[in-house]
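Internal tracking record. Fields below are filled automatically when a chain is submitted to the structure queue. Please do not edit lines marked as system-generated. If the sequence contains nonstandard residues, flag them in the REMARKS field before resubmitting.
Queue: standard
Priority: normal
Entity type: single polypeptide chain
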Amino acid sequence: MTPTGGSTSNPLKRVCVFAGSSPGNDPRFLGAARELGAALAQRGVELVYGGANVGLMGAMANAVLEGGGHVIGVIPRHLLDFEVAHTGIPDLRIVESMHDRKALMAELSDAFVALPGGFGTLEETFEVLTWRQLGLHQKPVVILNAGGYFDALVAFLEHMVKRRLLSPENHALLSVETSIEEMFAALEREATEGGGKWLDRDLT
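SYSTEM-GENERATED OUTPUT FOLLOWS
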């Protein structure tokens, strides 16, 4: 696919986005999902996500498709009906388990972004963040703090540092941004510095 925007030297080819399968009760959440999808398409960056056609996930994927971008959806077989799989995605990959889903999404992607969501969004985000802490990869992890949704989480992470259960160095592995432009700047900067690759595939 030929990028419609951005630099041809952009280190980000695919970005994995974790997001809620519900829209939430703040219109800023849906707005951020749609804006992010449109921005990915405009920049020629492919979206990797959980393959659903509902909530923030569906809104984001539809925005990428409407902008002429490419979407890779990854969904476990047992969630095909439960999460209402996005049948409008030409590249929908069906896997056998949640573990397979997360592993494939991570392998396909150069970076990770978290939009507002629930348990699944937090679990996926902190798993790839933990992998980075353990040195399994150097791919950037960014929270897009739409509508201040993650404010309490950000405060709790700072509390963890103060209680010396999270080191400042590991705390710094997670970027928190409030705008799409700041998010892309953080992703591109860290992907360039870290190479955005797995360090030892045998460990993954």
